[in-house]
Amino acid sequence: MASFFESWKVRSQQVKTEVYALYLAYKDTRTPWYARVFTAMVVGYAFSPIDLIPDPIPILGYLDDLVLIPLGAYLAVKMIPPQVMQESRAKAKEVIAQGKPVNKVAAAVIVLVWIGLAVVVGVIMYRWIKH
């Protein structure tokens, strides 16, 4: 049972490294615009403290962490040129080995996007209820 949890821990670290590599690939000018848009959504969701399915919900709460993020990362990797991903993975491993990367600007942008979405949904619901 311990090896099962250890393998999930290793896999989780690999996904985190891959998501950070996607973040670096997103910033690369050789990445096509459509791949940048999709990658930004995947990375933003992965780094976001807010999940579509809250983690306290048994089993379903971890669905996004176990399925949605790896699936999104897989699709994003397919859209990015292989050379860009190779360089981004190498840089991600290097940065993570030196210590966890912290980007307060990215965190602020993610929070602002969630607040903006909440406002838009609130306005739509208010207009719908008002009629």
Give the key terms.
131 residues
Output the helix-strand order: HHHHH
Question: Structural class of the secondary elements?
Answer: mainly alpha
Main sheet makeup: none
Radius of gyration: 17 Å
In total, how many beta strands? 0
> How large is the share of residues in beta strands?
under 5%
- How many distinct domains? 1
Number of separate helices: 5
Report what the structure shows.
The protein is mostly helical and 131 residues long. The protein has one domain (2-100). The chain is built from 5 helices and no strands. It has helices spanning 2-27, 33-47, 63-79, 82-98, 104-130. It is globular, with a radius of gyration of 17 Å. It starts with a helix and ends with a helix.
Short summary of the structure?
The chain is mainly alpha-helical and 131 residues long.
Task: Itemize the secondary structure elements and their pairings.
Layout (H helix, E strand, L loop, with lengths): L1 H26 L5 H15 L15 H17 L2 H17 L5 H27 L1
Helix pairs in contact: 1-2, 1-3, 1-4, 2-3
